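Chain X:
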Amino acid sequence: MDFWSLAYKLKWITKDQLRLAVKTEQNPFGEITVTQFKAITGDDFVSAAQ
């Protein structure tokens, strides 16, 4: 999670790009959890498909 947190903080990635790294049923190879997404961005995770 440290990499993703740093990448988001330094604006190397956007929130939408970070959303692609979240492990879900549709993305079983994600690297962070929904909880970690919220910790990094401060926003609840909402799938791009919704």
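Chain Y:
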Amino acid sequence: MIEIGALRPDDRDAWEVLARGYKAFYRTEVPDEGYDLAWERLLKGDEVFGLGARLDGRLVGITHYLFHVTVWDEGGCYLQDLFVDDTVRGRGVARKLIEAVAEAARERGMARLYWTTQEHNATARHLYDKVAQYKGFLRYDYPL
């Protein structure tokens, strides 16, 4: 049975393995200090939030999300990161994490939940096409 819940202080090592796997998948380098900062923010839980998926007590999936104001409606929830251990993919972990973030967004009165992924991420997109609507947006990053 998959259990979804808040990240706990003793999840740090397992969380970091999953977080590093996520960043490696997207070929994104993060220094060790970045993982420290992210973990501190997630545990504080006042600006960014994290959930973990546990299977038989083992952390096998993570998601990070945040809430923000918008100009036109009640606000949005951005699901920033979602990663599941490859040994348990296809067992509903990612879907349960998405549903848990959706519930948190509903509880906060948000008007929408959204996320991005890369075009080549066919496995994730297969799930995303089942649970959400692709509306054709492209993302551009402006270097600062």
